[in-house]
Automatic annotation (TrEMBL):
<keyword id="KW-0067">ATP-binding</keyword>
<dbReference type="Pfam" id="PF19191">
    <property type="entry name" value="HEF_HK"/>
</dbReference>
<dbReference type="GO" id="GO:0005524">
    <property type="term" value="F:ATP binding"/>
</dbReference>
<dbReference type="InterPro" id="IPR003594">
    <property type="entry name" value="HATPase_dom"/>
</dbReference>
<keyword id="KW-0547">Nucleotide-binding</keyword>
<dbReference type="InterPro" id="IPR036890">
    <property type="entry name" value="HATPase_C_sf"/>
</dbReference>
<dbReference type="InterPro" id="IPR005467">
    <property type="entry name" value="His_kinase_dom"/>
</dbReference>
<feature type="domain" description="Histidine kinase">
    <location>
        <begin position="778"/>
        <end position="986"/>
    </location>
</feature>
<dbReference type="InterPro" id="IPR043836">
    <property type="entry name" value="DHp"/>
</dbReference>
<protein>
    <submittedName>
        <fullName>ATP-binding protein</fullName>
    </submittedName>
</protein>
<dbReference type="Pfam" id="PF13589">
    <property type="entry name" value="HATPase_c_3"/>
</dbReference>
<dbReference type="Pfam" id="PF02518">
    <property type="entry name" value="HATPase_c"/>
</dbReference>
Length: 998
């Protein structure tokens, strides 16, 4: 009698070849962890050696279960499991879970990730924790042709619970597989045998070592669960992580693993099962690719423009509520016409999704939020499907439009409204009510049976009905949507028009500021003043030589008027009117403040001295006996010149204002005539339509309906134009009112705009600082316990060092290094309370040595010298190390960057001191005058990839201690010198000490 023989390749065909790819395989393993009642399933992928580790904290497997279930294909262990009672070994309070897999081949997905795997599993049963089960599989044996399945040996060993296999144990169990390969060699190709044996020799991952490095989920001590160690992982995994076709396409791994649990809904509890995928890059950076914030968050869901929620009953009818633009939910019932009054095969389910408008101008979201959420929608937007809270693949992927939404939209965007990439939400199924929706073996979607076809038809009908009822121009229930969208578009158009009007003025203002600073940097104000002084001196010499007194007096008066105009023109050339009617960026605001300081300095150092000199020089000549010119006559001439010049400027401004007023009046007249004409025309057309209506054949009721319809059209046409004219009236009224009280509407608008921009920037700052504070709080909490332990052990080592001379030097070096580290890490204490802080004497020499230790390698690498003067080394102040040290660190770090970037020949950083405080000078490029204050602002930086926080934090920290930091010598031609101004310290302050731990 013949028997069916099973080749080992059947396992490969049932497993690896049935899985679409590595992300799908990982998804399957996550589902297995879920079925094992794990609370966490975490992947760590190390790119350096292509090691893949997947750990869960589920209830694990005993040796019997591993051999009878995991190593047995097509087991019935999960078949009907959802109809059974929950396992009796679950922890108290653990809710029963719906089993996600029933085919018994999901475990074979591992072969897709890598060719060989070390498996560890430790079970928890009613009688407690069990021994550790260890096994090793090389899937290459199942790919080789000609080998019967029963000839392959899978070693299974046990270890006492709480222990992990090390190098010796792993090599032993791997060696058992190698022996099996050698036994099967006659039935295999030489190439296959060599390849598998080479793989086995290269398997050098040992759980006891990995467990120490990874922390977290562990099988040591009281740990339980199942862990997989795969080495090497298929190289395609790294490509799956990195592969991004464009900004609109997510990497395959993101598409498949994001949203494994339904975490986007605001009204849902936190999932019982959480996943992670940590990518350990070669540069040491570790990134969780599927963290909760990578998926849609509840806050993002709530902020969307429109929300749709309801239930599809057993007959396919939708009952729910629709909220458009944040309006109160509107009850909505949508019939499925193909239901025929019979219950559906797919069963009842819930649907909830949000929608964001495709144009920012039509959305209620702020532009930044709209852009951020839109970028996420483009990559991972779509309608997901969850069964009992766990995602069903591949639904939700932006390239899986299973409801043909984009196809309909392509035909007519105005009719069908919805775009698949603007939707995020879920169809929520349950095993209990939707059993006929069955997944394919390869997890690439549901089997296309009657239940799935009905699900699709019901949802397509829902989207089409929603578009017709709420979002078409003529939609019965689309009044609110169309009105709000029109208002948003109108507001956006107004803002665009305003931006267009003011952008030219803003640009001109910014150019004028730049030109001012360029001229000052080039020394042009001083050169112009010197020229006026020289010309004045030359002409005075010529006047003194005139013999005719009347001619001399006349020439002297002319010269004085000329010089006065020249000095006035020079002042005007370097005087900028503040921009009005528009807001400016933080950088331009800082430039304006720098301008005011610089302009005041020009007045003090150049313009005023020039005026005094010319007046004295002319007075000296006028007082000579040969030239009789009294002061009164000169004063009268000066006042006449000022009067004429002022009247000339005022008359020009008045003419310009009158011309603008005439233009405004004409524009108002034209607009009013056009709107009145349009209203009259619309009314005439409506009346003509009524006149052409045959009323004899109409009933009284029909005539009345016709009359009311035409009345509405007349009223609506008139109201729209009246509304526009009232807007003009309000603007004119506001303008007249502002003129009467001496205000400026453009200044008011600019102030409001600047206030809005400032408030948003401040909100961003507070958000950033809150995150920093939270992070520092965590660091302080974790660091505190560790550092106390290190401190105690150093003290113990000190006691031994007192008894052993050989230990004394070792102890001394460790103690010095620890004190240095302890002081430096105190910078990371929480922002609201600094522990372990004392005012101490701080010398320049200590600071210099600290900086040399910290930056020594970088300085040497870039051939930069850092020197401290004798004054610097001898300078001693009283203060907090955590206040001053970071400031010097930041200044030297910036200096190194700019010296290298500037490509200067002399590479030098000089540390100096005087009575005021410390200075740090570097030979890098100068900092322009307009940026002297701006560089100390939050996030203000010109460094490539810089964060703009160093100088800001340094200045804020110093200010709190009564100190300050300034740029001492702004100017592009000057090597930057930063001055740290140190406050005077009283005896009381010197002895002051903050409370805190020691």
């Amino acid at each position: 009698m013949a028997k069916i023989r099973v080749r080992a390749r059947a396992v490969d065909m049932l497993g690896r070849q049935q899985i679409a790819g590595i992300p799908t395989a990982i998804h399957e393993l996550f589902k297995n962890a879920h079925d094992a009642y794990a609370k966490h399933a975490e992947v760590d992928y190390f790119r350096e050696d292509q090691t893949f580790v997947l750990r869960d904290d589920g209830y694990g497997m005993t040796k019997e279960e591993f051999e009878g279930r995991w190593l047995t294909l097509g087991t019935e262990s999960k078949v009907g499991a959802n109809r059974e009672l929950a396992p009796d070994y679950l922890d108290e309070g653990t809710p029963r879970r719906v089993v996600l897999g029933e085919k018994g081949i999901g475990r074979l997905a591992i072969a897709t990730i890598g060719r060989q795997v070390l498996i560890l599993s430790r079970a928890k049963k009613k009688d407690g924790l069990q021994d550790l089960v260890v096994s090793f599989v090389h899937w290459g044996l199942f790919e080789a042709p000609g080998i019967d399945l029963d000839k392959i040996v899978i070693p299974v060993e046990t270890l006492p619970g709480g222990t992990l296999p090390g190098e010796v144990f792993v090599k032993k169990i791997v060696g058992q597989v190698a022996d099996n390969v050698r036994d099967l060699a006659p039935d295999m190709s030489t190439e296959d045998v060599t390849g598998i044996l080479n793989d086995l020799d290269a398997f050098t991952i040992y759980p006891d070592q990995v467990d120490e490095a990874l922390k977290g989920l562990s099988l040591r001590n009281d740990g339980r669960g199942t862990h997989f160690y795969i080495m090497p992982a298929d190289p395609i995994l790294e490509r799956d992580i990195e592969e991004v076709g464009s900004d609109d396409i997510a990497a395959p791994l993101h598409k498949m693993l994001l949203g494994f649990s339904n975490t986007m809904m605001p009204d849902r509890p936190l999932p019982e099962f959480l996943t992670a995928f940590r990518d350990h890059r070669r540069n040491g950076v570790v990134e969780d690719l599927i963290g909760r914030n990578e998926f849609f968050t509840p806050d993002e869901f709530e902020s969307a423009d429109h929300h749709f929620e309801g239930e599809i009953d057993a007959f396919g009818q939708f009952k729910g509520a629709i909220s458009v633009y944040g309006m109160a939910p509107d009850p909505c019932t949508i019939e499925w016409p193909d239901g025929d009054g019979q219950q559906t095969a797919c069963g009842p389910f819930r649907v909830k999704f949000a929608y964001v408008q495709g144009n920012s101008r039509e959305s209620l979201l702020p532009p930044e939020d709209w852009g951020r959420i839109s970028a996420k929608l483009n990559k991972i937007g779509g309608l997901y499907i969850y069964r009992d809270g766990i995602r069903v693949l591949p639904y939700g992927n932006s390239d899986v439009d299973f409801l043909n939404i984009e196809r309909r939209r392509t035909k007519s965007a105005s009719d069908w409204f919805f775009s698949y990439r603007r939707i995020f939400g879920a169809i929520e199924l349950t095993y209990e009510h939707n059993t006929e929706l069955r997944e394919k073996a390869g997890r690439e979607g549901f089997i296309t049976n009657k239940a799935y076809r009905q699900l699709r038809e019901i949802m397509e009908n829902l989207f089409m009905a929603l578009a017709k009822q709420f979002f078409r121009k003529d939609a019965d229930r689309g009044g609110e949507f169309n009105k709000i969208r029109a208002d948003l578009q109108h507001q956006n158009d107004l803002l665009k028009k305003r931006e267009k009007r003011v952008s030219e003025r803003r640009q001109k203002f910014e150019i004028t500021l730049r030109e001012f600073f360029n001229k000052v940097e080039e020394g042009k104000p001083q050169a112009a003043a010197d020229k006026i002084r020289a010309e004045t001196g030359r002409q005075l010499t010529a006047i003194e030589k005139l013999k005719d007194n009347d001619s001399a007096v006349s020439e002297l008066l002319k010269l004085e008027g000329y010089v006065r105009r020249e000095i006035s023109d020079l002042r005007n050339e370097y005087t900028i009117k503040k921009g009005r009617g528009f807001s400016t960026s933080k950088k331009v605001q800082a430039q304006w403040y720098s301008y005011e300081d610089t302009r005041a300095k020009l007045e003090k150092d150049i313009f005023q001295p020039l005026s005094i000199w010319t007046d004295e020089a002319i007075s000296a000549v006028a007082g000579q006996s040969t030239i009789a010119l009294d002061r009164r006559r000169r004063a009268k001439k000066t006042l006449d010149d000022v009067r004429d010049n002022s009247l000339r400027i005022a008359r020009a401004a008045g003419r310009e204002a009158l011309n603008e007023a005439k233009t405004l009046v004409e524009a108002v007249r034209k607009d009013s005539r056009e709107r009145l004409s349009k209203t009259t025309e619309n009314i005439s057309k409506t009346l003509a339509e009524f006149a052409a209506t045959e009323t004899a054949s109409l009933t009284d009721e029909q005539i009345k309906e016709k009359q009311e319809a035409l009345q509405r059209r007349i009223s609506e046409a008139a109201e729209e134009e009246i509304f526009r004219m009232e807007g003009v009236i309000n603007q004119l009224h506001a303008m007249a009112e502002a003129i009467n009280i001496g205000d400026s509407l453009s200044d008011e608008t600019a102030a409001l705009e600047a206030s809005y921009v400032g408030a948003r920037e401040q909100l961003d700052l507070f958000s950033d600082l809150a995150q920093v504070g939270t992070a520092l709080g965590i660091v302080q909490h974790e660091f505190g316990a560790t550092i106390r332990s290190v401190r105690e052990n150093i003290q113990r080592l000190g006691a031994w060092a007192d008894l052993d001379e050989e230990l004394q030097q070792v102890y001394s070096d460790i103690r010095a290094s620890f004190d240095h580290l302890d002081g430096y890490l105190s910078l990371f204490t929480p922002l609201n309370r600094r522990l372990q802080r004392h005012r101490i004497p701080i010398s320049g020499e200590e600071i210099r040595r600290y900086l040399q230790e910290l930056f020594g390698d970088r300085l040497e690498r870039h051939d930069i010298r850092m020197i401290g003067t004798r004054d610097f080394d001898r300078k001693v102040i009283e203060g907090y190390a955590s206040t001053y040290y970071p400031c010097f660190v930041n200044l030297v770090d910036n200096a190194i960057y700019w010296i290298v970037k500037g490509g200067v020949q002399e590479r030098l950083i000089t540390l100096d001191a005087d009575d005021v405080g410390f200075t740090v000078t570097n030979t890098g490029p100068g900092i322009s005058i307009d940026l002297k204050d701006w560089i100390f602002g939050f996030t203000n930086t010109e460094k490539d990839g810089g964060r703009g926080m160093g100088l800001y934090i340094s200045k804020q920290t110093l200010t709190k201690e009564g100190a300050d930091i300034i740029l001492d010598n702004p100017g592009k031609e000057n090597h930057p010198t930063f001055r740290i101004i140190v406050p005077e310290v009283t005896d009381q302050e010197t002895g002051e000490e903050e409370n805190g731990e020691d």
